[in-house]
Design goal:
The chain is an alpha/beta fold. Helices cover about 20% and strands about 30% of the residues. The protein has nine helices and 26 strands. It has helices at about 10-25, 65-70, 130-140, 150-165, 185, 190-195, 245, 285-300, 370-375; strands spanning about 5, 30, 40, 60, 75, 80-85, 90, 95-100, 100-105, 110, 145-150, 165-170, 200-205, 205-210, 215-220, 225-230, 230-235, 240, 255-260, 270, 275-280, 315, 325, 335-340, 345-350, 355-360. A hairpin with a 2-residue loop joins strand 7 (about 90) and strand 8 (about 95-100). The chain is globular, with a radius of gyration of 22 Å. About 40% of the residues are buried.
Length: about 375
């Protein structure tokens, strides 16, 4: 009998396999990973340095142990070159793999904006363990870091590296931190706490070029300002990995388009995690991925169900000023209101029927996220 084949050994892939094994110990499963297949928590990459953790210490369970515990066939360091939907086969560097049903849990790639300068290729992005290992190696001889991007990952790295003693500059074309997730009254709460750690903010500008300097690099911003840093880290966002699906003729938009049963335009192929677009939304956060993994496990086991997402707060790992947010769509109808303030802020997003459909909590209010989530779910 052909197996269920899962492409990807990140949170999405492993959550699905774990949940499917809870339901069915007999079904054949093959997991294909482009890297080592070791299980680790990807969100830890942006706040592990100050804790003194290297890449190897972030591994929670080795791939061989995962394969034995879950009773699956593991193919590590294996690249998939093409999907043959007609014959239900994969062309891979390990040979041809047949599947009964295929799950794409491919993840996402860092967005790389074009940069001028003779050191543009020296800009780092951190998206997996090998990237993190390279970052740690480069940080060993650095004193200052320039971070491109003031979003969630950029702010987490800024907090982590500043606590570790580095001089940190954050450059972002937006007007304030976390601008894609929350209103200015909330995002602005992060300015002073991180500045107190030594973070220097540069808003309304972007990096235009990166050049080698006598020591480190010189970054020229779009307003002509030049700043210097020993290391440049890009954290401007992720783009779902869709090339394999597109080349196979699957419907692709921002992500691999799937329905409420996480089924693609091919009935035998499913997608979840950072690469998937569910009901028009890409949800690259831990809680949505776990909900989707549980739902898909039931579906693959023969249960006619669909994924339903409750309110799922996103926790921003900035200990200098904790933040929890339940985001709303950019085109959502309604308005933000301040519910409380003082050493942080509590804000709710109210729709035209005066119902709370999103929230942001910072500082002393961040711990109230579960109570706020209940208001949305009710």
């Amino acid at each position: 009998m052909k197996p269920i084949v899962v492409l990807g050994s990140g949170l999405a892939g492993y959550t699905l396999v774990r949940e499917l094994r809870k339901l069915n110990r007999e079904i054949a499963i093959t997991l294909v990973s482009r890297d080592s297949g070791d299980y680790y928590s990807k969100p830890m990459l942006s706040n592990a340095f100050a804790q003194g953790k290297d890449a190897s210490s972030l591994v929670l369970t080795a791939a061989a142990v995962m394969a034995k515990q879950l009773d699956i066939t593991m193919l590590a360091d294996c690249d998939v070159r093409a999907i043959d939907r007609t014959s239900k086969q994969l062309d891979t560097t390990a040979g041809v793999i047949e599947y009964d049903r295929l799950v794409l849990a491919l993840g996402a790639d860092p967005i790389r904006i074009p940069l001028q300068g003779d050191a543009a290729e020296a800009v780092l992005s951190v998206n997996d363990l090998s990237d993190y290992a390279q970052l740690r190696e480069r940080l060993a001889t650095a004193k200052s870091v320039a971070i491109m991007g003031g979003g969630l990952i950029g702010c987490e790295f800024a907090n982590d590296l500043a606590v570790a003693g580095y001089e940190v500059s954050v450059i972002d074309p937006g007007p304030y931190p976390l601008a894609s997730l929350m209103p200015e009254q909330a995002g602005g709460q992060l300015l002073k706490p991180l500045a107190d750690l030594g973070v220097r903010w540069h808003f309304g500008v972007a990096v235009q070029r990166v050049d080698k300097a006598l020591s480190g690099y010189a970054l020229t911003l779009t307003d002509g300002t030049v700043i210097h840093a020993d290391l440049v880290l890009s954290a401007i966002g992720l783009r779902p990995r869709v090339q394999l699906a597109r080349e196979a003729g699957l419907e692709v938009n921002r992500g691999i388009v799937v329905n409420e049963r996480l089924q693609s335009s091919d009935a035998a192929i499913f997608a979840l995690g950072d690469c998937a677009e569910i009901d028009g939304k890409v949800l690259p956060f831990v809680l949505p991925i776990m909900h989707a993994g549980r739902a898909l496990a039931k579906i693959l086991n023969g249960d006619d169900t669909q994924v339903i997402f409750p309110a799922m707060p996103v926790v921003v790992k900035t200990p200098a000023h904790p933040i929890a947010v339940s985001p709303v769509a950019r085109d959502a109808l309604g308005s933000w209101r301040t519910l409380a303030s003082g050493n942080g802020i509590s804000m709710g997003f109210f729709d035209p029927q005066d119902r709370i459909t999103g929230f942001v909590l910072t500082g002393v209010y961040a711990g109230e996220r579960n109570e706020m989530a209940k208001k949305i779910n009710n």
